[in-house]
Structure formats: C-alpha cells, structure tokens
Amino acid sequence: MPGDDTPREGVVLSRAGKASSSKKNWYNVEYRKPEELKGNKLSIDLSTVDELQVVKSDTDQDTEDDEESEEALFNEIDFCDARKAELENWKKHHVYQEVEDYGQSYVSTRWVYTIKEADNEIHRKARLVAKGFEEDCLDEIQKNSPTCDKQSLRLILSIIMQKKWSINSIDIKTAFLQGEKMQRKVHLRPPKEANANGKLWLLEKCVYGLADASLKWYEKVKKTLNECGGTESKVDPAVFYWYNSNGLAGVLAVHVDDFLWAGTNLFETEIISKIREKFSVGKEASESFKYLGLGLSHADDKIILSQTDYVRSVKDSLN
C-alpha cells in the first residue's frame, strides 16, 4: 500500500466501479492477512498498490455466502439511501403489484452496487436486479432489441454537419422501469429491504435482469417517438427522423437509455421538450460528450471523433 511496506493478502469481492469509468481500478476487498486486519473490508484503488500479486482462488463460482459477504461489505460502506431510492423508483413507475404468496413460482432478486464519480463527487448507486435466468421458458422469450449502429451514427453526424446543427445527448434515468407493460405473468420475490414478508411482486414492467427488459424499453421508446411524429429508419430501427414542409427537421439515435439528437430550434421546442416530459431525464450534454464509446466534440465546422479511453485501455493491457 502507498506509504506502507507491510504485505497484505486479501480476496476481491467485487468491483467498486464500472470498468469503463474513472473508478475502473477500484475493487471491494476483504483482508486475510495480516492477522490484525483479517475480516476488514474496504474499497481499494489497485492502481496505487506498489506491488500486486494475484493468487488464484480455490473456486471460481459464486455462492450464497459470497453474495452475503458482498452485501455486508456494501452495508458497511452505507448504500442504505441508494437502496431506498431504488425502491422508491420502483413505486414511482408502478413496476409491480404486491400480492399474497400462495406458493407461486417466482424469480429472486439481488442488489448490484456501483460507485460513480461525477462532478468531482462520489455517487453511490444501488440497482435491484431480477435473476432472469431463473425464469421458465427462456428460449421462448423474444429478446433482441435494436440499438444504434456505429455506421448509422457516422451518417447522422454527416447530416448534422450538413445542416449546421449542434449535437446533443440525453440520458434517461431508470430507463427499464419506464418500459412497456409485461405481456406475461412474472412474480418476483421482494428484497428484505422492502419489508414484504409473505408477499410477492407481480411485475407490471420488465425490470433489470429479465431477458426482454431491453426490448420492452425499446418498444416504449419507439411508441413515444412515433407519437411525437418521429419515423424510424428502414435501415436502422434505432434511428428516428422528423420532417416538416421544409424537409428534415430533426434526428434522434437510440442506444438503450442514451439518446443523441440534433435539429432545428423548433424541433427542440416542440419535440425534445415532449420527450423530456414523457421520460425521467438525467444528464444532458451538448457539443462535447461520449456516445457509443466515442468521444464527440463539435467545434466550428467539424465534429471530432476520438477513442482516447479505448486507446489508453489497450496501452495499459500491453504494459
């Protein structure tokens, strides 16, 4: 550890941040040695460790004890508020109906925790995820969901430059909780934090972890954009266009919960404002942001595409 030559041995429990974020080197660790630290749990930036040796564990499979120890770790880090916020989001978006447990088959859940850095602040996030692999008849469920192709993105950017529009992005919060209603019956076992003993949740929305969650979200997006006058591309169903008497007025690309859009001032006033009303919108950006893993920067008469983070990750993997 920095400033301390004492050797330590521990087991990595889970990531403490997304692999694509600035927290990619942070992991949740439980100490095994030295004896006075045994059992202590904390989050560590492994890139700051002076000398790191990876020891293969006895087993590569997760167990219930692993999940319990991971949950205990995050309880110590204090994700209580994050879990509460997630449960409130489920209620806000009318995700389920609470029903009596008469022995119906159900899908269990687990918490997925992340730590994000934004605006020089650390944000804790808890997401309640269904163990979709437990659901019966998985092979019969339609799963494929359109997302914007990178070639389509390049074509859109060319159109934007030709039209002299500015590029913008919108992130949709809790996207899957806003998807289309379920067409099949799925019961969920509530997490203990819901205090719903003897109850099950009959899902009305297709939540995180279910096989067709992305598809149900896309169906809601398509329905909403069509109602707002948009027409999906015949080549890429994740790209939508708007026209008026003067021709093309706006364009919007969909990649799950990330939208990229551009258009006239009237398009923003009449269409984008409606989208903001229809969905719970999170972060928005203009002129310079990341989309589909590409860095986009619009300045003067050009849009610059970069993959700095990807190049850095390749470089790091070769060192």
UniProtKB/TrEMBL annotation:
Q: Species lineage, top-down? A: Eukaryota, Metazoa, Spiralia, Lophotrochozoa, Mollusca
- The organism's superkingdom is given as Eukaryota
- The Reverse transcriptase Ty1/copia-type domain sits at 105-315
Q: What is this protein called?
A: Reverse transcriptase Ty1/copia-type domain-containing protein
Q: Which segments carry the region annotation Disordered?
A: 1-23
Q: Which Pfam families match?
A: RVT_2 (PF07727)
